[in-house]
Amino acid sequence: MSQTRAPKVVVVMPAYNAGRTLRMTYEQLPKDTVNLVILVDDGSTDATLDVARQLGLEIFVHNRNYGYGANQKTCYTEALHAGADVVVMVHPDYQYDPTLVPQIVEPITRGAADVVLGSRLKSGSALAQGMPWWKFVANRFLTWVENRAFGLRLSEYHTGYRAFRREVLETVNFRANADGFIFDQEIIAQVVAAQFRIAEIPVPTRYFPEASSASFLASTVYGLRILAVVFWYLLSKWGVRRSRRFDSLRARYTRLR
């Protein structure tokens, strides 16, 4: 990251039917910290695009609903093309507090971390904030499994509020990940495999009808897929079976020279 200028902070918003919450999310972004806001619309059928155009956002549109992971792939690719030094994912459903962007960026700009996660469980009670009890229990179990596998002590891995240093997104092979929700855990496993530093900040979260929330069945399937990601990560780490997902682009380029 250049020392002669302030880092370029790009907020990316993976959007799907976020027309009712996009405006209030955008309006609370600290404009003195954020240099550019990119919205990727993943085939919305509501007023998301109309609101995004009214707000003057940089917009990229998928011709149909490809999935949350596919949306993030476009988000990060376009943020890198735009010259981002730090990329922050802010969900436009207003579930996470957009005013905390300076806090989630700060460990990266200070040189103390490469990735920062906004944790709902680092302080306070996610249950008191409205997290369903079964999600809380699953979150605790899966976080324990991931901490054991990754050798970390994070308070949670399942947050959608994340910031990345540019080099991270240039190094990990995020385009090889799934197009669905499991992308979130795949990219964290890639970050760990590439030995980047992860930090956390506490963030409150909101649960209300307009905010996205997976069903019990969808959450169960998601949990099983997380266990599969951990399984394949460990096989790759132990050299039992290599996976191109955990083979960093930096290492690949080195081998090709």
Helix content: 25-40%
Global structural class: alpha/beta
Radius of gyration: 18 Å
- Relative strand content: 5-15%
- The total count of strands amounts to 7
Query: Please, how many domains?
Result: 1
Q: Note the run of SSEs as H and E.
A: EHEHEHEHEHEHHEHH
Helical segment tally? 9
Largest sheet: 7 strands, mixed
Looking at this structure, what is the CATH superfamily?
Spore Coat Polysaccharide Biosynthesis Protein SpsA, Chain A
CATH topology: Spore Coat Polysaccharide Biosynthesis Protein SpsA, Chain A
End-to-end distance: 25 Å
CATH-level-2 architecture? Alpha-Beta Complex
CATH C-level category = Alpha Beta
Mean pLDDT: 90
Question: What strand line-up does the widest sheet have?
Answer: 3-2-1-4-6-5-7
Runs in which pLDDT lies below 50 for 5 or more consecutive residues are 252-257
Overall geometric form: globular
Key traits:
257 residues; 9 helices; 40% helix; alpha/beta; globular; Spore Coat Polysaccharide Biosynthesis Protein SpsA, Chain A
Q: Would you write up a description of this structure?
A:
There is one protein chain. This protein has one domain (9-256): Spore Coat Polysaccharide Biosynthesis Protein SpsA, Chain A (Alpha-Beta Complex), CATH 3.90.550. Helix 5 (133-150) packs parallel to helix 8 (216-237). It is globular and about 50 Å long. It contains 9 helices and 7 strands; from the N terminus they run E-H-E-H-E-H-E-H-E-H-E-H-H-E-H-H. It has 257 residues and is an alpha/beta fold. The longest helix has 22 residues, at 216-237. Mean pLDDT is 90; it is low at 252-257. Helix 1 (22-27) links the parallel strand 1 (9-15) and strand 2 (36-42).
